[in-house]
Amino acid sequence: MQTLYSHFLFLCFSCFSFVSLVHSWSQNQQFNQANNYEGSSNLVNLEYHMGPVLTAPINLYIIWYGHWNPTHQSTIRDFLYSLSSPAPFPSVSDWWRTVRLYTDQTGSNITGNIAISGEYYDYKYSHGNRLTRLTIQSIIKTSVSSYPRALPLNYHNGLYMVLTSSDVLVEEFCRAVCGFHYFTFPAIVGVTMPYFWVGYSGSQCPGMCAYPFAWPKYSGKPPPGSSGVDNIMGAPNGDAGADGMISVIAHELAEVSSNPLVNAWYAGDDPTAPTEIADLCVGVYGSGGGGGYVGEVYKDSWGNGFNVNGVRGRKFLVQWIWNPVKRRCFGPNAMD
Ligand SMILES: *[C@@H]1O[C@H](CO)[C@@H](O)[C@H](O)[C@H]1NC(C)=O
Predict the structure, then answer these.
(1) Residue 330: helix, strand or coil by DSSP?
(2) Whole-angstrom distance, CA of residue 248 vs CA of residue 201
(3) 108 Cβ closer than 6 Å to some ligand 1 atom
(4) Is the dihedral of CA 138, 49, 94, 43 positive or negative?
(5) Is 336 a domain residue?
(6) Tell me, what's the pLDDT at 272?
(7) What's the gap in Å between 3 CA and the centre of ligand 1?
(8) C-alpha angle 201-77-67 in degrees, rounded to nearest 5
(9) How far apart are the C-alpha atoms of 2 and 273, rounded to whole Å?
């Protein structure tokens, strides 16, 4: 669940516990220890710990916290619609097929049916602009209890996604995490429901959370092909922050679906710092990816990178997921 990432930063995409990150490591050590498993590996001890996975059709509720650019919102919505809608191969729903390979004790697969079932606009920053992990749960509580436009409290098959705008600081955001998933506590929200959070990183830390559309400032290396110009990968929907968020949303969605109560699919012996199905493939977007190289991806006619197609002609770049059958990271744009 906590992730070391290959662009020279120790980056925890989805820790639910704040593991202290090893800031003292040299960049080289961090680089060398970056994990990725594009090649088949029997060293990965991904195990099922008997808990539930999200097998019922998911009702996804979006909570837009803060001030949002409508263009970024529609990019994100289109990505979510694409999860269960047809689009030319390789599509977002083809990408989700890898997640659907995970089952629970009864042999039921993770659902392929994800619908946006409600949206809540918390444009008044109900809990301020400096949030902790627990205040994210309070934001969910506000969204399900506000008058007159509350989201339903759907503890049967609801999944709550909190997205914070560029001006919102979240505990550990940009220092260690780009997003995380967990479940709500009855003491705060009233019931236990899976949720995840992702922050807009476009202005706070694009090099960390909107990679590979932005270059990590402290990588110790210049951007590739830099001759005064940033020659890094263009974002397929025109905004490094929103396009970068989509890969983090994809990552969290895969993990919350396969480990919603943090007792289902993960690797590692420490349940407070599990390595989940997307953590194993951070930084890998295509064949050959890993160690700072994104892998074989496509370029649109403007030269922007992408690896899957979505609804309305959209293109997205999402990281690969650990495939439990092939025992390697995999995506529909794989060359083999
Ligand atoms: C369900 O999971 C099993 C085990 O990974 C897999 O063989 C099967 O194809 C999956 N079904 C779907 C619909 O994805």
Answers:
(1) strand
(2) 10
(3) no
(4) positive
(5) no
(6) 83
(7) 26
(8) 50
(9) 6
Q: Give the ranges where the chain is alpha helix by DSSP (H).
A: 27-32, 70-82, 92-99, 133-145, 186-189, 206-209, 240-258
Measured in angstroms, how far is the CA atom of residue 55 from the centroid of ligand 1?
A: 12
Question: Residue 49 falls within a domain, yes or no?
Answer: yes
Ligand 1 center to 102 CA (angstroms): 7
61-75 burial, b at 16+ Cβ within 10 Å, e below that, comes to bbbbbbebeeebbeb
Residue 107's contacts (CB-CB under 8 Å, 6 or more residues apart) are none
Burial of 106 (0-12, 13-18, 19+ CB in 10 A): exposed
pLDDT grade, residue 284 (50/70/90)?
Answer: very high
Q: Which helix (H) or strand (E) holds 312?
A: none
Beta carbons of 183 and 194 less than 8 angstroms apart: yes
Looking at residue 29, its amino acid is: Q
| pLDDT per residue as tens digits for the range 2-30 | 333 333 333 444 433 332 222 222 232 33
- 0.90 cut: is pTM over it? no
Residue whose pair of structure tokens reads 């899957």 in the numeric block: 308
Q: How far is CA 114 from CA 92, 164, 195, 243, in A?
A: 12, 21, 14, 20
The answer to the question of residue 335 being in a domain is no
Strand partners, 58: 114
Does residue 257 register a pLDDT over 70? yes
Q: Report the domain count for the chain.
A: 1
Cβ 103 under 6 angstroms from ligand 1: yes
Task: Say yes or no: CB of residue 327 within 6 Å of ligand 1.
Answer: no
DSSP 296-310: B-EE-TTSBEESEE-
User: What whole-number distance in Å separates Cα of residue 236 and Cα of residue 316?
Assistant: 6
Has residue 115 been placed in a domain?
A: yes
In the chain, the amino acid numbered 306 is F
Question: 57 is in which domain, residue-wise?
Answer: 2-330
Mean pLDDT of 201-208: 93
- Does 101 sit in the ligand 1 pocket, CB within 6 Å? yes
